[in-house]
Specification:
Number of domains: 3
CATH topology of the largest domain: Beta-lactamase
Oligomer: single chain
CATH architecture of the largest domain: 3-Layer(aba) Sandwich
Helix content: 40-55%
CATH class of the largest domain: Alpha Beta
Largest sheet: 5 strands, mixed
Distance between the termini: 119 Å
Radius of gyration: 35 Å
Length: about 600
């Protein structure tokens, strides 16, 4: 009987062992390595940090910061002052350099405290855990979030060096008022770079992240000062500083202020941002539509540096001149300035008040050009085709073609006159005859190198000679085209952006400048002489100023005086000015004042005589 029982017991035990083995096999098959588990929560090899991108002017000075929801100026580990690192280690994680992301003693102490309190009353987060939370998690006080935090911290310590962890930590922590990272906090609250911080200032800023609302130095400086003292005490305790340094730092008078991010010349910055997207599309033609927009935003969010040709003093002059010369309600204006020797856009003002998100009339608007189109569409093609000159006579008498009968200004009637006089005084009938003689199609071929965005096939008509277009042109478009007269008849598209670089100085994108011959050099010289006569004796005599060896240009007025233009060039710059209402309506009351010429002269005289 005992044998039978023993046999049965053995079989039973073998069965349990077999089932256990089967279960173990299944568990082994289901087992997921911890590294893989962590990767499913967060990829610690990537740092999803939003960083400010900066735009630099022609002298290399920052004039604008592009930022998203997080205002962050990222700095590398080598740029972080030693005192900043010491202050955070002394107060947040004294064993940071020796632990592996998790402080067991601190966790045990916090666990006892939390069990007694019936909830999460005390944390035990290392710098690595805080980084894990800031980068990949939220701040919910739950055990589930805490477990994920521990797992991610473990992986961070396996993947990154202590230096990299500190670099990321110092750049991710929140300093209240929308400010992230020590560099941004230093500039925002103290108006200086982190590398320039004193010990007292370092301790003051290091106080904020522990409880940003409680230690907000703008509204609760007394609280901040108390924690500053505690941080200095900790640094002294850790032998990071000496007694004399501690005393001096505590006695130091610190003036807290709110320095907003660089936002100078927002209208120009808006154009730079749009031009960057054009540059990206030109460099990477596979990007289109939403993909292009998404990649543009991604790169701007990575903290790139955009070097531009902006001339800040000239930009300021253009903006101020618009305000001074246009005190009239609802009358607006725009200015574009090109350095035609360097083929660069150096100033661009889209209105009397031009904010970053505002409609920018300098490059986003398209208006009828009036007679400002005559040099490009009529006179240059005619002279280039027939080798005419300024002295060539043309019939300026009444003209009619299939019911189209344009009139001269004031209904004036002329006979024959030289081309130079017809252009200088902007007589309409000879301009239409010249377009008809050259041929509408051939004349429009001369405009193709400029890539005007608003020209349609409906514009291929005789009224185009006088500026009758379906959509029209932006001030920047006409200014860029006129710069050809300063380049021997060769067109090179001007750009505001010189280069786009990464934070470490690597060139990411640059325009590939290409030049296109548009008309012959001798045609160009003849046209320069004609444009000069417009200023010396024609409709733009008020544009003259001392300081440039050459001044030439062309005025433009549209029907009912809805638009006033002047586009002209000097020996160094080409500039265009437009005046009008956003909703087209007459501005005849300012026609005699010629504010467009006054603005042009203000800007160009300043450029040549500063």
């Amino acid at each position: 009987m005992s044998r039978l029982f023993g046999f049965a017991a053995s079989l039973f035990l073998l069965g349990i062992v077999a089932l256990a083995c089967i279960g173990l096999k299944q568990e082994i098959q289901r087992y997921t390595p911890i590294d893989q588990t962590v990767r499913s929560i967060a990829d610690v090899s990537r740092y999803p940090l939003e960083k400010n991108s900066t735009a630099l002017d022609s002298s290399g000075n920052v004039f604008f910061e592009f930022r998203g929801t997080e205002n962050r100026i990222y700095i590398a580990y080598e740029q972080i002052p030693k005192r900043v690192i010491q202050s955070f280690i002394a107060t947040e994680d004294q064993d940071f350099l020796t632990h592996h992301g998790i402080d067991g003693k601190a966790i045990a102490r916090a666990l006892v405290t939390n069990l007694k309190g019936g909830g999460i009353q005390e944390g035990a987060s290392t710098i690595t855990q805080q980084l894990a939370r800031n980068m990949f998690l939220n701040h919910d006080q739950t055990y589930d979030r805490k477990l994920k935090e521990l797992l991610i911290s473990y992986q961070i310590e396996k993947t990154l060096s202590k230096e990299k962890i500190l670099e990321l930590y110092v750049n991710t922590i929140y300093f209240q008022n929308g400010v992230y990272g020590i560099e941004t906090a230093s500039r925002y609250y103290l108006g200086k770079r982190a590398s320039e911080l004193t010990l007292g200032e370092t301790a003051l800023l290091a106080s904020i992240p522990n409880n940003p609302s409680l230690y907000n130095p703008v509204t609760k400086l007394e609280n901040t000062k108390k924690r500053q003292k505690w941080i200095l005490d900790k640094m002294l305790e850790q032998k990071n500083i000496k007694h004399a340094e501690h005393a001096a730092a505590w006695q130091e008078k610190i003036e807290v202020q709110q320095n907003l991010p660089y936002r100078s010349f927002p209208g120009f910055a808006a154009y730079v941002r749009d031009e960057f997207q054009q540059l990206l599309a030109d460099s990477r033609p596979e990007l289109k539509g939403k993909a292009l927009s998404k990649e543009t935003e991604r790169l701007i969010g990575e903290g790139i540096v955009i070097e531009t040709a902006l001339d800040p003093s000239l930009q300021a002059k253009a903006e101020q001149s618009l305000v001074n010369r246009l005190p009239y309600q609802e009358v607006e204006g725009a200015v574009a300035v090109v350095d035609h020797k360097q083929h660069e856009i150096i100033a661009l003002s889209g209105g009397k008040k031009s904010n970053y998100t505002d409609f920018n009339r300098a490059y986003e608007s398209r208006r009828q050009p009036g007679s400002a189109i005559k040099p490009l569409l009529v006179y240059t093609p005619y002279i280039d085709t027939f080798k005419a000159s300024g002295g060539t006579l043309i019939n300026a008498g009444p003209f009619c073609n299939n019911g189209y009968c344009p009139q001269n200004y004031g209904g004036a009637v002329y006979g024959r006159m030289p081309l130079s006089q017809a252009l200088a005084f902007s007589v309409n009938t000879p301009a239409v005859r010249l377009l008809q003689t050259t041929g509408v199609k051939q004349s429009f071929n001369y405009l193709e190198p400029f890539h005007f965005g608003g020209i349609s096939t409906n514009d291929h008509r005789l009224p185009a000679a006088l500026g009758g277009f379906e959509f029209g042109f932006s001030p920047l478009e006409l200014t860029s085209a006129y710069s050809t007269y300063a380049s021997n008849g060769i067109y090179t598209a001007p750009h505001a952006i010189r280069s786009v670089k990464s934070r470490d100085g690597q060139v990411l994108y640059q325009w590939k400048k290409s030049s296109t011959p548009v008309w012959r050099p001798d045609t160009n010289e003849k046209m320069r002489a004609l444009l000069s006569m417009v200023v010396s004796s024609g409709t733009a005599r008020r544009a003259s100023f001392a300081g440039s060896s050459y001044i030439g240009g062309k005025t433009g007025t549209t029907n009912n005086v809805n638009d006033l233009w002047f586009v002209g060039l000097t020996d160094r710059y080409t500039a265009g000015v437009w005046i009008g209402r956003d909703q087209p309506a007459s501005i005849r009351f300012v026609e005699g004042i010629q504010p467009q010429i006054g603005i042009w002269r203000d800007v160009m005289s300043f450029a040549h005589n500063r």
